[in-house]
Design a protein that fits this description.
The structure is a homodimer of 416-residue chains.
Chain A (H helix, E strand, L loop, with lengths): L3 H15 L4 H17 L1 H17 L4 H7 L3 H16 L7 E6 L5 E8 L2 E6 L4 H12 L3 E5 L5 H18 L6 E3 L6 H6 L8 E5 L2 H10 L12 E5 L5 H13 L8 E7 L3 H14 L3 E4 L1 H4 L7 E2 L2 H5 L6 E7 L2 H11 L4 E5 L3 H10 L4 E6 L6 H4 L7 E2 L7 E2 L6 E12 L3
Parallel strand pairs in A: 3-4, 3-6, 4-5, 7-8, 7-12, 8-11, 9-10, 9-11, 12-13
Antiparallel strand pairs in A: 1-2, 2-16, 14-15
Helix pairs in contact in A: 2-5, 2-7, 3-7, 5-6, 6-7, 10-11
Catalytic activity (chains A, B): L-glutamate 5-semialdehyde + phosphate + NADP(+) = L-glutamyl 5-phosphate + NADPH + H(+)
Subcellular location (chains A, B): Cytoplasm
Family (chains A, B): Belongs to the gamma-glutamyl phosphate reductase family.
C-alpha cells in the first residue's frame, strides 16, 4: 500500500543535505533530465496515450484532454524549461543584507531552501517538470501530487527526473511522487506539517479551498483571476482598444485574462462604440451596467451583481462605466481577486495613484494583464501564481522557493 | 453584543486607504501616542490594577501576574517603543528591484502593506503597543486580541492609540480591539479570511496549535524555542563557558535560552568539569547522556529521549556528548525547534558548515543564542518570532509586515 507519511519523511530527511549540493550538480541534473526527455520521447508519448485513452473512456471534456496531451511541441517545451532553469542564478546562499551591531555582532540574512515543498496539481503533466526543476535548482525536496487522470504521464516524467538525479549525484529521494489515485492521500498529506514546509495547490477553486481548509502547513495559493482593465478619461484610445481586446480575446481561458472592463464616463462616447464593434466581431458576449447597455441595447445583456465577481474564463466580458478613478479603484479592490489589473491612461498622477492603491499582485499601466507569468516576467519559470498576501504575490519563481535565515558572526558576545 | 465580523470588515475597508497615509502622519501618530501614555500614566496604572486584582482573585501564578504588571519602567518601555518605531524607515513604497523586459515593459517589485493583521496574544499588555505601533508604521490595519486577564489594560492602551490616530489624521478604524473575553470570538476570527490577511498567535503552544489548526488565513507562528549551543572540538574554552552560561542562565524563561548543550567528545575533558561547576553554583539541574553523567554521577540525572525535545523555560539543561560536527548538526535538526542555535569554534570550516546546515531561523557562531530579538537585531521592535519557513524566519519586524507586489510600466504592450 502506498504510504504517504513514509515518502514525506524521506523527503524531509534528505532535505537538510540539499543545501550543500553544488550549483554545478544541480545544473547537470537538469540538463541530464532534458537529454533523457528528448531520448525517451517515445516512452513518454506511450504513457501519455494510456492517460488519454483512459480519459476518453471516462468522458473527460475536450479541453481537459487537450490539457492532458503531451505532443512534440509540449515535450520540447519541457526540455526548454529544464534548460532555462539550469541557466538561472542559484538563489541558495545569497546573502541579501548584512550589518554590524554596536556590540560587534555581524548579522546577515542568507537565502536558504524552504525545505519540503508539496505541490498538488490537476491535469497538465508539464507541471511535473516545471515544479520539479525549480525545486531541484532551489535545493528543495519536492512531493509531486498530480491529477489521477495524468498518473502515467506524471510517473514517467518523475522517473526521468530521478534517473537524472541518480546519474549526476543529486539525492533522488528529494523528488517524491504520490503514486496513487486514492483521494485520501491528499487529505493525509495535508496533516503532515511535521515533514512538509509548504503546500502549493494548483487547479480549480474547489481543490484550492479544500487544501486551504485542511492544511496544517502554510499554503501558497491562487483562487481565481478576476482581472480588470480601467480605461481612464485620459486614455490613448488606440492603446485602450488594443489592450482591452488583447486582455480579453488573446487567450480567454487563463487566469490573467480580463473579466471586467471599467470605462470612465468622460471617455465612454469616444471609446465604447468601436470597442463594442471589435468584441462583437469575435463574438464576445457583453454584460453591462445600465449606461453601458445604452451603447448597444440589442447586443449587450444586463450585468448582475454576480457578474462583477465572475471569472468567466471564456469569451464573456462584464463592462461598467464609472465616474472617477476612485470609483474604478474601489470596484477593483471590492470585486476583484487581487491578481492583475491595468489602467490605460496618459495622465501621470492617475497612473501613479492606480499603481499605489490597487491592491493586486500585479498592477499595470498601459499594458495587457496577460503578461502576468513567471516566464514572461523574466523569472525563468513559475511554481504557480500567488494571490495571497504573505511570502509571495504574483508569479512564484526560484527566489520565492527560498527564505532568508539569520546568520550571526560573533567573537564571544553574551547578552547583558 | 460584540460583533467580530463587523470590526474585521471595518479594518479591511479602511486598509486600502492606508497606503496613501504619509510617513509624517504615521510618525506624528506614534509620537502623539507616546505623549498620551506619559500623560495618562495614572489611568493606565488604575486600569492595570483592575486586571491585577481580578488576576489575584482568579489565582493566577506569580509569574503570570508579573507579566501582567505595568509599572513605571514598563510604561517607559512602551513610550520608548513608540519613539523607536517612529524613527525607523518607512518600508511602504520601497521599490526593491526593477528591470526591463525585451518588449520594453518595466517590471518592479514594490513593498506594500499586508492589509489586515490580526494578533492574538496572552498576558503582556505591552504587546498591544508594540504590535499597534508596527502596524501603524507599516500602514496595516491591526486587530488586537489580548488575553482576557489583561482586558482593562489593553483597552486603555488601544484607546490611547486610537486617540492619537484621531488627533493626527490616521484612520482610527485601522486599530481594532477585540473587546470581549468570550472565547468563541477567536474561533470566529479565524474563519474571516475574507477580511483578515494574516494572523499572528503569540503565547503558549496550546494557543498556537489551536490557531494553526483552525485558521483559514495564513498564520505566522512560533511553537517553541529548543535552542542549542554546540561546543566544537576547536572551541575557545573561555568563550564556550561564557556563552553556554549566558545562554542558559541569564534569562531561562524565554524562547531564545539554551535548552540543550552539545559537547564534542574531544573537548569534553577540558570543558565539562568547569562548566558543570559553574552550573552547579547557580543550581542548574543537568540531565545528561551516559557519557556526560560520568563527569559528575551524583549531580547529573539521566536524560530521556523526551529531554532532547524539551523546552524547559527553567534552570534545567540537557547535555549530550557527540563525536562529530555532523552528529551535532543532525541532533539539532532532528530535536530542535528551528529557532536559534550556536556553535562555539575557532575552526573556520566547521563554523561555515554549521551556519549552512543548521536549519534554524538564527544560526550563530561564537555568540549566545539570547540575542534573537527584533530590537537586539536592530529591527526596532518585533511582532513576534517566526519558526515557520515561509514569509519570515526569526524576528518579524517592520519590513516583514509588508510584501512586494509587482508594478508594471508599459506603453501599450499586448501579448502576442
Amino acid at each position: 500500500m502506498f504510504n504517504i507519511r513514509e515518502i514525506a519523511k524521506r523527503a524531509k530527511n534528505v532535505s537538510y543535505g540539499l543545501v550543500d549540493i553544488s550549483t554545478e550538480i544541480k545544473n547537470r541534473t537538469l540538463l541530464k533530465a532534458a537529454e533523457l526527455i528528448e531520448k525517451k520521447r517515445d516512452v513518454i508519448e506511450a504513457e501519455n496515450r494510456k492517460d488519454l485513452v483512459a480519459g476518453e473512456e471516462k468522458g473527460l471534456s475536450k479541453a481537459m484532454l487537450d490539457r492532458l496531451l503531451l505532443n512534440e511541441k509540449r515535450i520540447a517545451g519541457m526540455v526548454q524549461v529544464l534548460k532555462d532553469v539550469a541557466s538561472l542564478n542559484d538563489p541558495v546562499g545569497e546573502v541579501i543584507k548584512m550589518w554590524t551591531r554596536p556590540n560587534g555582532l555581524k548579522i546577515g540574512k542568507m537565502r536558504v531552501p524552504l525545505g519540503v515543498v508539496a505541490i498538488i496539481y490537476e491535469s497538465r503533466p508539464n507541471v511535473t517538470v516545471e515544479a520539479g526543476s525549480l525545486c531541484i535548482k532551489s535545493s528543495n525536496s519536492v512531493i509531486l501530487k498530480g491529477g489521477s487522470e495524468a498518473i502515467n504521464s506524471n510517473r514517467v516524467l518523475v522517473n526521468i527526473l530521478k534517473e537524472a538525479a541518480e546519474s549526476e549525484g543529486f539525492p533522488s529521494d528529494a523528488i517524491q511522487f504520490v503514486d496513487t489515485t486514492d483521494r485520501s492521500a491528499v487529505r493525509e498529506l495535508l496533516l503532515l506539517d511535521e515533514y512538509i514546509d509548504v503546500v502549493i495547490p494548483r487547479g480549480g477553486e474547489g481543490l484550492i479551498r479544500f487544501v486551504a481548509e485542511n492544511a496544517r502547513m502554510p499554503v501558497i495559493k491562487h483562487y481565481k483571476g478576476v482581472c480588470h482593465v480601467f480605461v481612464d478619461e485620459f486614455a490613448d484610445l488606440e492603446k485602450a482598444w488594443n489592450i482591452c481586446f488583447n486582455a480579453k480575446v488573446q487567450r480567454p481561458g487563463v487566469c490573467n485574462a480580463m473579466e471586467t472592463m471599467l470605462v470612465h464616463s468622460k471617455i465612454a462616447d469616444a471609446f465604447l462604440p468601436n470597442m463594442i464593434e471589435m468584441f462583437k466581431k469575435v463574438k464576445v458576449e457583453l454584460r453591462g451596467c445600465e449606461r453601458t447597455i445604452s451603447y448597444d441595447p440589442d447586443y449587450i445583456k444586463p450585468a448582475t451583481e454576480e457578474d462583477w465577481y465572475a471569472e468567466y474564463l471564456d469569451l464573456i466580458l462584464a463592462v461598467r462605466i464609472v465616474d472617477s478613478l476612485d470609483e474604478a479603484i474601489d470596484h477593483i479592490n471590492t470585486y476583484g481577486s487581487h491578481h492583475s489589473d491595468s489602467i490605460v491612461t496618459e495622465n501621470y498622477t492617475n497612473a501613479m495613484k492606480f499603481l499605489n492603491k490597487v491592491d493586486s499582485a500585479a498592477v499595470y499601466v498601459n499594458a495587457s494583464t496577460r503578461f502576468t507569468d513567471g516566464n514572461v516576467f523574466g523569472l525563468g519559470a513559475e511554481m504557480g501564481i500567488s494571490t495571497d498576501k504573505v511570502h509571495v504575490r504574483g508569479p512564484m519563481g526560484l527566489e520565492d522557493l527560498t527564505i532568508p535565515k539569520y546568520i550571526i558572526f560573533g567573537n564571544g558576545q553574551i547578552r547583558e
